[in-house]
Amino acid sequence: AALAGGEAKALAGLPLAQFVPDSATRGSLADHPDDGVEGTLYRLDGSELPVQLIMRPVAYGRTPHVALAVRDLTTRRRAERQIRFLVGHDLLTGLPNRRHFQDCLDRNIRQAGSGRLALLHINLDGFKEINDLYGQQAGDRLLNETARRLGGLVEAPSFVARLGADAFALV
Fold first, then answer.
1. pTM of this structure
2. C or N terminus of the chain, fewer CB within 10 Å?
3. 170: which residues sit within 8 A by CB, 6+ positions away?
4. Whole-number Å distance between alpha carbons of 43 and 4
């Protein structure tokens, strides 16, 4: 009832299709009882909630019924998005990392076809000395400021990536 956004008494007798309108999801639930099915729960206020649904047949009196367990997947989906972001981005600057850069560069090369594509590699000379003389926090500020300024120079589909400690690329 809490996930659907109402009181339990108000939900009694309402069809499942009101909350899970996707017939494929409902069909999968019926075809695979005891297996979790991911889908979308439409709350009474019209908002959507990612959920896992598990339906099990139960006997209540002499009438067959089904019990439906609903698990909110919001936190899990948020964590999955965060993990996907972390895999492809530099933790300090938030820019695409070397791995993500390579994927984006390959895609841009294919899209450019016989057109033109520019790649600019930027290395911050003397960066090690800045870290050694002024500390890692000063170096981090320099990297973040560099990332911010480079990012301000480009618009999609162009992009900036951090390739290493003091190396950036613009495509």
1. 0.66
2. N
3. 118, 119, 120, 122, 150, 153, 154, 158, 159, 160
4. 4
Torsion sign over Cα 24, 26, 32, 38: positive
What is the average pLDDT across 92-113? 92
Task: Tell me whether residue 166 is one of the annotated catalytic residues.
Answer: yes
- Tracing tokens 């019990």 back to the chain, one arrives at 67
Residue identified by tokens 């609903």 is 70
Nearest to 161 by CA among 143, 138, 142: 143
> What DSSP character marks residue 98?
H
Average pLDDT over residues 138-146: 96
Stated as kind and residue range, the H or E segment containing 110 is helix 98-112
Residue of 72, 132, 140, 166 marked catalytic: 166
Closest listed residue to residue 117, CA positions, set 59, 159, 61: 159
CA distance 41 to 126: 55
